[in-house]
Specification:
This protein has helices spanning 4-15, 19-32, 34-54, 62-79. The protein is mainly alpha-helical and 80 residues long. The chain contains four helices and no strands.
């Protein structure tokens, strides 16, 4: 396991890369876990679908969700 100092050093090095190289690094690291992530999402989708079928899921109205998103975005803009 890496120490925090090593992680901080790695982050500092990564931030010195060009935007293109950073993007490539993100893709490479993300792809390394892709099978695990895909399996986890598959399980999550199945679980949520079953909740909808069972009637135990909390379903939200799109207009309410959209309003909450807009309020959060506005709040973040004010914080900058």
């Amino acid at each position: 396991m890496m120490s925090m100092a090593t992680v901080d050093e790695l982050i500092a090095q990564v931030l010195q890369l060009s935007p293109e190289d950073r993007a490539r690094l993100v893709r490479e690291v993300s792809d390394a876990d892709a099978p695990d992530i895909e399996a986890s999402w598959g399980e999550e989708v199945s679980r949520r679908a079953q909740e909808v079928l069972d009637g135990t899921a909390e379903l939200l109205d799109w207009d309410d969700v959209k309003k909450r998103i807009e309020e959060r975005r506005e709040q973040r803009r004010r914080q900058r």
